[in-house]
Amino acid sequence: MKDLIADIERWQAAGQRVALARVVAVVGSGPRDPGAAMAINEASEVVGSVSGGCVEGAVVAEALGVIESGEPRLCTFGYSDDEAFAVGLTCGGTIRIFIEPVN
Predict the structure, then answer these.
(1) 24 and 97 Cβ atoms separated by less than 8 Å
(2) Distance from C-alpha of 17 to C-alpha of 14, rounded to nearest angstrom
(3) DSSP codes joined into one string, 17-62
(4) Could you tell me if 26 and 93 are in contact, meaning their C-beta atoms sit under 8 angstroms apart?
(5) Is 78 exposed, middle or buried (0-12, 13-18, 19+ CB in 10 A)?
(6) Could you tell me which residues come within 8 angstroms of residue 103 by beta carbon, excluding any fewer than 6 positions away?
(7) CB 95 within 8 A of CB 55
(8) Residue 19: what pLDDT?
(9) pTM for the whole thing?
(10) 97 and 50 in contact (C-beta within 8 Å)?
(11) For residue 100, what are the contacts with CB-CB under 8 A and spacing of at least 6?
(12) Per residue in 51-64, pLDDT tens?
């Protein structure tokens, strides 16, 4: 999280709206542990990681919705082991990601 603060502050100083996405739960295997975080600004710039790339495009889309609405969201992403391998993931399992606007 500390790694994200400088970028969040820089974006906000430039007038950008920002959302913060954090892994809050992992069921089964997952690429990142709870607490992993990613910040997204309204221009779709990203710092940090919540999944090592496997669902981050979907998280960015959800975060842009959070920025627009101002309402936080709890999102769940999951794959079986076979589905995970088919889309290039190293693990199956489910991750829950809480996304909130940064004010």
Answers:
(1) yes
(2) 9
(3) -EEEEEEEEEES--SS-TT-EEEEETT--EEE-SSTTSSHHHHHHH
(4) yes
(5) middle
(6) none
(7) yes
(8) 98
(9) 0.85
(10) yes
(11) 19, 20, 66, 72
(12) 877 788 999 999 99
Cross-strand pairs, 39: 20, 47
Return the half-sphere exposure (C-beta side, CA atoms, 13 A cut-off) of residue 27: 8
Phi-psi region of 70 (alpha: psi -120 to 50; beta: other; left: phi over 0): left
Residues 2-18 have pLDDT tens digits of 689 999 999 999 999 99
Radius of gyration of the chain (CA): 14
| Amino acid of residue 97 | I
